[in-house]
Task: inverse folding
DNA sequence: CAAATAACCG
């Protein structure tokens, strides 16, 4: 698929008297091709042309060549750079920016140091570039040193530097430092607001982000497209559809409706707030659509369980001549694994590198593991992880572990669990899965060992929490607690629902209850008041008959709640849209859109 | 050439 550049026509007519003169005149250099350069090969072709055009020592051209270097070709960029005798600050910045986008961003720090050694002073863009590199490398120590240097050289309050400082600290997990820096700004600069709002989003604090947005509005500052991106992302995190719709209106009224990225964020927001129809609407209304917009729509179909739609959209995208990127493939692979299309998924995975020039990364491998494991091809998944060209992350083993849980393969599950232990990065959920597996297999000694291990390693079980938006207010319920003002009523409603469903054949599935030392009744009780059941019951009480219930849960939905929700959708004639940790379940007429494959 | 959406498992 890669395009090859052809040189401008430069062969002069052969038998002309002025042939000698024509040879003297170097061929013109095709500057317009520079920005279209996407691979090392194209870059080398351009460099060759530059030499033919006798421009190889021309600093602006070398700078442009370095700027055009794809992130994977930084060695080449470095060689070009080293040919320049006295690089100026712009050139140092260019090289530094190249590294900050590569997979070795920390190299920017060395470039910056070399610049200072060479006696070249930084300009307004040197620190932002350096700090961006520290942020993407999550190098907080280097980031702090860069901050120190910025203070020393008088750049710390620079309007270009301050927002980057804020986002660097946030990216390095130091939201408090970011907040403190933001507080020192006079709050008159939208860009600083943007970086602080984005910092909150990146640290999963959507409510704080929205509060800052309201503050910005109250001050009469004009939000930018970037503000809208972060605000929409906050709505997506919260799953707050009503608020999201309001922001959509705001976007339209304030002239952001034609921004491709804002529309892409709208697609994502609607998809994550459970309204696939609205996402489709935004996508359909977009005038021009880039790779990201198509990807967002593919992911939207995928998380709603519409695997075939996601795939046909991908094919349509290819027909339109839009180049897929790594994220497009994550969407496609995700769609396949969540709808059981194993062979299709593997097929797409194999075309990534050759046909589309997209190098698979660890997340793509993760999708393949999920693809195989979810479909029950557990041994293959295990071998696949072991044969990877890179060190697997705990996530890959966790994917396998969770699938082993679903398919009841205790022995393989234990092996996967051990790999997570070796990597010393266990989550509470890992212990829950393996312990439940051992429990349902009657391996009580193992269960006790696992629980002991869990407390030794200080892992904690994340409490289940579900929320439901009723009349523009988000109500939160935790499993079994009584904190919500209407908790009593919700509990009683659950009792009522359970009784009614039992009469139509519902049997509580207590086989996977975590606690071993419980009697059957206690187990049923702990299951009965799972947070999603409370939220659904609350919705049944507080909304008129027929209203769709939209519930967001912080963990994966459990099997018992899943089957109960199906029955509620039938017995109470309600649609229920339940957002899991990472996907949606649409319950209607006793069935779920996931087809019980999740 | 500052701020930046989309992202595998739980």
Result:
């Amino acid at each position: 698929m890669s395009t090859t550049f052809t040189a401008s026509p430069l062969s002069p007519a052969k038998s002309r008297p002025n042939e000698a003169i024509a040879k003297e005149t170097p061929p013109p250099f095709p500057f317009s091709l520079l920005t279209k350069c996407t691979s090392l090969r194209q870059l080398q072709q351009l460099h060759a042309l530059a030499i033919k055009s006798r421009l190889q020592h021309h600093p602006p051209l070398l700078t442009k060549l370095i700027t055009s270097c794809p992130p994977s070709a930084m060695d080449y960029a470095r060689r070009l750079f080293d040919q320049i005798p006295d690089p100026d600050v712009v050139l140092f910045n260019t090289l530094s920016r190249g590294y900050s986008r590569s997979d070795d961003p920390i190299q920017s720090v060395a470039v910056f140091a070399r610049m200072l050694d060479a006696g070249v002073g930084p300009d307004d863009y040197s620190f932002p570039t350096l700090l961006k590199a520290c942020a993407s490398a999550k190098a907080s120590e280097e980031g702090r040193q860069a901050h120190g240097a910025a203070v020393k050289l008088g750049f710390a309050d620079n309007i270009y530097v301050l927002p980057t400082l804020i986002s660097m600290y946030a990216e390095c997990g130091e939201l408090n430092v970011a907040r403190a820096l933001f507080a020192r700004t006079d709050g008159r600069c939208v860009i600083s607001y943007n970086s602080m709002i984005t910092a909150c989003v990146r640290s999963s604090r959507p409510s704080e982000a929205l509060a800052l947005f309201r503050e910005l509005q109250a001050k009469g500052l004009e939000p930018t497209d970037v503000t809208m991106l972060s605000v929409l992302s906050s709505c997506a995190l919260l799953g707050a559809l009503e608020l999201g719709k309001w922001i959509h209106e705001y976007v339209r009224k304030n002239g952001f409706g034609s921004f491709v990225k804002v529309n892409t964020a709208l697609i994502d927001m609607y998809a994550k707030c459970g309204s696939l129809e609205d996402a489709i609407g935004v996508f359909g209304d977009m005038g021009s659509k880039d790779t990201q917009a198509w990807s967002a729509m593919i992911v939207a179909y995928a998380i709603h369980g519409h695997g075939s739609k996601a795939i046909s959209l991908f094919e349509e995208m290819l027909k339109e001549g839009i180049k897929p990127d790594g994220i497009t493939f994550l969407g496609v692979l995700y769609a396949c694994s969540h709808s059981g299309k194993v062979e299709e998924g593997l097929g797409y995975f194999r075309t990534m590198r050759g046909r589309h020039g997209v190098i698979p990364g660890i997340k793509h491998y993760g999708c393949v593991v999920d693809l195989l494991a979810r479909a029950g091809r557990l041994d293959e998944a295990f071998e696949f992880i072991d044969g990877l060209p890179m060190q697997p992350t705990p996530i890959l083993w966790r994917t396998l572990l969770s699938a082993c849980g679903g398919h009841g393969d205790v022995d393989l599950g234990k092996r996967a669990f051990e790999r997570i232990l070796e990597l010393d990065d266990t989550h509470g959920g890992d212990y829950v899965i393996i312990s439940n597996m051992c429990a349902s297999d009657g391996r009580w000694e193992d269960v006790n060992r696992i629980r002991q291990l869990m407390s030794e390693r200080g892992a904690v079980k994340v409490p289940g929490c579900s929320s439901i938006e009723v009349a523009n207010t988000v109500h939160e319920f935790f499993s079994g607690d009584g904190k919500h003002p209407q908790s009593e009523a919700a509990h009683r409603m659950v009792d009522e629902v359970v009784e009614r469903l039992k009469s139509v054949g519902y049997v509580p599935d207590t086989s996977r209850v975590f606690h071993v030392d419980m009697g059957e009744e206690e187990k049923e009780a702990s299951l009965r008041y799972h947070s999603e059941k409370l939220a659904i019951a609350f919705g049944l009480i507080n909304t008129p008959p027929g209203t769709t219930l939209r519930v967001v849960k912080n963990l994966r939905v459990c099997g018992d709640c899943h089957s109960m929700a199906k029955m509620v959708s039938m017995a109470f004639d309600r649609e229920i849209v339940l957002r899991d940790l990472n996907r949606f379940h649409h319950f209607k007429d006793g069935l779920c859109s996931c087809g019980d494959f999740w």
Notes: The beta strands of chain A are 465-470, 473-478, 549-553, 576-579, 584-588, 591-592. Residues 186-283 of chain A form a domain with the Serine Threonine Protein Phosphatase 5, Tetratricopeptide repeat fold (CATH 1.25.40).
